[in-house]
Amino acid sequence: MQKIHLTTVNKKTIIPVTLTVIQTFATWLIPSMYGHQVSTTIQHTFTNQVILILFVFMFNFLIFDRFTNKMPIPIFLGMTGISILVVAFSFSSIAPTIGLLLFTCLLSLLPFLFSAKNNWAGWLLFAISSMFILPETFFYVQCGFLSTNFLKILIIPLLSALFFFYPFFIKEISHSGIFNLILGILCVGLTVLGNLNTYTLIAGLLVLISWGYQQFAKQPKLLLTVNVILCLFFNVLILMK
């Protein structure tokens, strides 16, 4: 049997690609689960949904690459340019507003071009993009309209993204752990107050597990993998009845 030997580049790419698949699935799953509860006729073609998924995949890959593989800047900028072209040509004619929102998401990549210990802008933009703008965009493409009720539902996923991805963007501030704990408590509090059941209690436990693991984790890539998975499970649980 022929053995497959992975090159160093392939091994380094496995982690960001795996994380990208999980995060892209999470971004797609939230509006899809909610969309099944809405009676509507799909307004956009399957092709548009596939294009949007490809854009979200590339967006997440570029973010996670900065935390893991760190491809050369010219390649990074080239892939960013491709993402912009995808947005421009895919949605400018059928939904200019959607194209503008997706372009806003790409602004999350700009702070990575500067070497700063605390990437506040990137943290906020990524969380807002990943768990607010992109899920609402998926909902629009799937159902054909924007929902204010769905925007309200996205508040907790947004807080969860701020919590789970905080340690990778913000690395050097005083009492960082306490600040992140406050985010976690706020996220759990709103979740439990909104709908107290077994699923939301388990979701709250996942937040506690993540925060506890952050306090002694020595491998950033492993912590990132754990938090991406926990973020997915958290958001699935809060949407379950």
Could you outline the blueprint of secondary structure elements for this entry?
Elements: H1 8-35, H2 46-67, H3 73-91, H4 96-106, H5 120-143, H6 148-153, H7 155-169, H8 176-194, H9 198-214, H10 220-239
Write a structural description.
The protein is mostly helical and 241 residues long. It has one domain (8-239). It contains ten helices and no strands. The chain has helices at 8-35, 46-67, 73-91, 96-106, 120-143, 148-153, 155-169, 176-194, 198-214, 220-239. The radius of gyration is 18 Å and the shape is globular. The chain crosses the membrane at residues 12-34, 46-64, 71-91, 97-114, 121-141, 153-169, 181-210, 222-240. This is Integral membrane protein. Keywords: Membrane, Transmembrane, Transmembrane helix.
Structural features:
single chain, 241 residues, mainly alpha, 10 helices, 75% helix, Integral membrane protein, transmembrane helix
Largest sheet: none
**Based on helices, strands and strand pairing, what is the structural class?**
mainly alpha
In whole angstroms, the N-to-C terminal distance is 48 Å
Strand content: under 5%
Structurally, the number of domains stands at 1
Gyration radius over CA: 18 Å
Whole-number mean pLDDT? 83
SSE string, helices as H and strands as E? HHHHHHHHHH
Number of alpha- plus pi-helical segments: 10
Residue runs with pLDDT of under 50 for 5 or more positions: none
Instruction: Tell the overall outline.
Output: globular
